[in-house]
UniProtKB/TrEMBL annotation:
Pfam families: cNMP_binding
Taxonomic superkingdom: Eukaryota
Keyword Phosphoprotein: yes
GO molecular function: cAMP binding; cAMP-dependent protein kinase inhibitor activity; protein kinase A catalytic subunit binding
Biological process annotations from GO: adenylate cyclase-activating G protein-coupled receptor signaling pathway; cellular response to stress
Protein name: cAMP-dependent protein kinase regulatory subunit
Record keywords, A-Z: cAMP, cAMP-binding, Coiled coil, Nucleotide-binding, Phosphoprotein, Repeat
Transmembrane parts of this sequence: none
Any one of the GO CC terms: cytosol
Coiled-coil annotated spans: 53-80
Similarity annotation: Belongs to the cAMP-dependent kinase regulatory chain family.
Endpoints of the signal sequence: none
Residue ranges occupied by any Cyclic nucleotide-binding domain in the UniProt entry: 124-245, 248-365
Length: 368
């Protein structure tokens, strides 16, 4: 292949394909009648969003700038650049999915079962059908790291995402103007990392270091791009849109919202179903996506609160480290997102102050 053709393919890979992958994913979701007009409007909206993000970022405090920088770095890799037209023939050659042959790594049934259990905890893989799920299971490779090993380093190219089977890792980020790296979070078994570099064709945005012996399952870029990427983009955008409507999460920055997507799980209940029961030990906080619920105090024998879409409940057990203070029953059919307390506190620790302020709505009943 000529150097000119190679350069064109590189340009498509790094500049064109990330934009068109997201555009196509949104078209499939929205299914507009006028694809041309809708696509133009979508691209213009993305451009305005980039400009607004830059303006807002200029007004942020130093601490907020640190938190936003990770997302900015990722999104800046998607900016359109003015270049001469590329060959449709070359793009077609690059984008032939029928040429994709997924890798297959032999595994024991025990390994397959462990991988399946772990990846189905990640939102990225939950939308896969059985055929695609089996392709991903076949392509996953078990990788082990020792305490102190660097799994990925900030600024490097990323070719794999990782799902943690055993052990813990820490995520560090070096921000402009700071000499020391900032600890962002600790990863535990069941969580995944490294997908941002694959989703956005960007360099690694942070450093991940093992703090004990770790076993992971790694998925290569090619399998991710051909099997997982569209469903992951679709699922992430749906989740971010949902989270944007939850009052509790309004103070979150984009990076925190992305991280929260990875630990939230969805469940549906029919009207009349008890979600939590007064007196039991609770380990989940719930976000209401659709439907209405009611909270009852058995001790007081009365209704103490009405919930609607956008509300949350279950936080009292988290804040007070006490049994459930009321029974919450679905008034209508409901769709909920839930997060276990350990994950919530690791990701959302500072937001416990927000929850504390909202305890006022229960104070009358708690005093009684």
């Amino acid at each position: 292949m000529s150097s000119k053709k190679t350069a064109t393919l590189d340009y498509i890979t790094t500049k064109v394909k990330p934009v068109f992958d997201q555009l196509i994913a949104r078209i499939v979701i929205e299914k507009p009648d006028d694809v041309y007009t809708w696509s133009i409007n979508w691209l213009q909206k993305q451009q305005r969003g980039q400009l607004q993000l830059q303006v807002v970022n200029n007004d942020l405090s130093e601490e907020e700038e640190e938190e936003e920088e990770l997302v900015l770095e990722i999104k800046q890799t998607q900016k359109q650049q003015t270049r001469s037209a590329v060959s449709a023939e070359v793009y077609g050659e690059y984008n032939k999915k029928e040429d994709f042959k997924p890798r297959f790594i032999q595994k024991s049934q025990g390994q397959i079962d462990r991988i399946k259990k772990r990846i189905l905890n990640s939102f990225m893989f939950q939308a896969l059908d059985e055929k695609d799920l089996n392709i991903v299971l076949g392509a996953m490779e078990e990788k082990k790291f020792q305490d102190g090993d660097f799994v990925i380093k900030q600024g490097e190219d990323g070719n794999e995402l990782y799902v943690i089977d055993e052990g813990r890792l820490e995520c560090y980020k070096r921000f402009a103007g700071l000499q020391e790296e900032k600890l962002l979070k600790t990863y535990i078994p069941g969580e995944s990392f490294g997908e941002l570099a694959l989703l956005y064709n960007a360099p690694r945005a942070a450093t991940i270091k093992a703090i004990e012996n770790v076993t992971t399952f790694a998925l290569d870029r090619e399998t991710f791009n051909n099997i997982v990427k569209f469903s992951a983009i679709k699922k992430r955008e749906q989740m971010e849109e949902i989270l944007g409507k939850i009052e509790l999460l309004q103070s979150m920055d984009n990076y925190e919202r992305v991280q929260l997507c990875d630990v939230l799980r969805e469940e549906k209940h029919q009207a009349g179903k008890s979600i939590i029961t007064e007196g039991e030990i609770g380990d989940r906080i719930y976000l209401i996506i659709e439907g209405e619920l009611e909270a009852y105090s058995n001790k007081l024998n009365e209704k103490v609160y009405d919930y609607k879409s956008g509300d949350y409940f279950g936080e009292l057990a988290l804040l007070k480290n006490s049994p459930r203070q009321a029974t919450v029953i679905a008034k209508t059919d409901v769709t909920l997102l839930y997060c276990d307390f350990n994950s919530f506190k690791r990701l959302m620790g500072p937001l416990e102050q927000v929850l504390q302020r909202n305890m006022e709505r229960y104070q009358h009943y708690l005093q009684q």
